[in-house]
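Progress against Task 2.4 (sequence-to-structure conversion) is shown through the following example record, which the project officer requested during the mid-term review.
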Amino acid sequence: MSTLASMTGFARESGTLPDGTSFVWEVRSVNGRGLDLRLRVPNGLDALEAPLREAAGKRLKRGNVSATLTLKREERAPRLTPDPAALDQAIALAQAVAQRLGAPPPRAEAILALPGVLRAEIAEPDEAVEEAKRATMLAAFDTALAALAASRAREGAQLAKILGVLLDEIEALRVQAAGEAANQPEAQRQRLMENLAKILGEGEVRARIPEERLAQEVALLAQRSDVREELDRLAAHVAEARRLLGAGDAVGRKLEFLTQEFVREANTLCSKSASVGLTRLGLELKAAIERLREQSANVE
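Structure tokens generated for the chain above:
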């Protein structure tokens, strides 16, 4: 049996790149209508976006997911190298000035200290090393995704228990409503007789209105307030919800659509109710269904 998953979770994975740079992935997710991955990676790593999205799509089905990559490079003094053109120009100027002043030749460190003579050496990127870095970061991201999926599965296990309890509550209320609805025809007959007695007088009702006519009116009222179909559909919805919970996987959207059907039947039951007791049970049903809807919105 598949495991029900929540859309809420968090994971963190760290590592070190071949050049000694340390990095940290932080991945968190919350509810969403579909799968929306928002990536925050340092400049120069745009090539990672496509494989990152592909990896997330394999692990997750729904949720607003944010993934942040943080790099921490060791501070190293830049390697300096002389600029040939600037060095030649500085030496020529220094020698010319020394000759005019009759001064000794300038010292090498003085020339090298002149602005622009030395520059930071920029190493040409090694594609093999860069590819190794990307592979390391992608592998760590996949590990973080696995941890996120495990976190969401743990949340889903708790969600399944909560949803199961809510379905038990809805089913119990449905059974009570069925018992209350069975008494509606007799209650309506009594109410009809009481209303006619107030209008015509106690002794005039049966004398002036045929029994057959009274039976027709009661039958009409009973038909208008018949909630057996609504109760049967509620029972079917409860059974389908239990099936979905057992199937697991990404059933969140199906559960959300199913709860809309729950709401529709509960509203119709309340509108057809002809007794205070059935109306009370209908309102309790609506409250339980609303809690079911709220929790279902967390399911992947």
